[in-house]
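Slides due. Your pick:
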Amino acid sequence: MNKPFHEVRRQQFLTPTFYTAAISNLDEVAPDLRANLEGPNGDLDDKRGWAFFLSDDAYQRFSLRYTAGESIEQLRSELTGVIEAYERYQRALGEYEGMPKIAPFTFAELYHYERCMQLIGLCYLLHRRDLLPSIAALQDPAYAGDDTLYEDLLAYEMEGRFDVDEWHHDDPYRNLINCLYAETEVEQLATLQAYLKTWYPAFKYAPWHDGHLRIRGTEGDYFGYWAFEAGAVAYLLNLDDSAITHMVYPKDLVAWARANKHLSEEAGADQGRCEAGQPCPRAGFWFTPAQAGSRRFFQAGEVMPEVGGDYGATIWQWDQNQAPSKL
């Protein structure tokens, strides 16, 4: 027997009436936006706008479903679609601006920065580390080596990241960065708690701030308030979060991540191979049996190339010997 909505929702602001209407509206709008984006009508500015709304709606739908208490297992598979929506937006934005490598998240904008950190956090908590190279491919052309938190979070999975001592937003992120560098668990927990306390007030000018106050029956723009990156830090540092009760901390998601560590191990095993046309899952030397002498270095997120020949599909394999080639 299904539990009542108020028992499964993960934040108390969400009502079943608003949730049902919001999901229905997002699902109704998405096909039209995709059709407009893929169709012949509209200029580059129109397509940029349609792609932006598709990406923003994809994240909002995902966050709404988590807030409503939906299955974490289902959300794990749905994260792919969210990342793909931002990849689609990046392409449309690049065409509009005439900058093919433009980043979809402008780190100078606080809520853009937070969205990127939320997505990175979700990759760890949902054991979807395979998606991290895709995020890096979106942001690295503009921001590689430019921000401590961005680099440190990616470095838990991706090799070849940068050691940086500067970041874009002191409020609220200094506390989270301090948590990563604290020497004792007591200090780590204290700085993490401080981060959670200042997280929501720091976003008072974000478009989504106080969205719960704008819910009117089926109308509103609330989709949950979640510091997923804080949960990822607690998970990565293996902190005892039993005393953390802050509303924006995704405690059940951290618990799920800890109970399902084998999923990351299985995903890690898959990182030893990569099909042509897919982003490189980690920086290093790769080779393909489809071509003799093919060993070469790829950056994480770089699209793996197709090679000619009669071998069939090009599958790149991770070289266990990562020593540079001798001349």
The chain has twelve helices and four strands. The chain has two domains: 5-270, 273-327. Residues 273-327 form one domain. The radius of gyration is 21 Å.
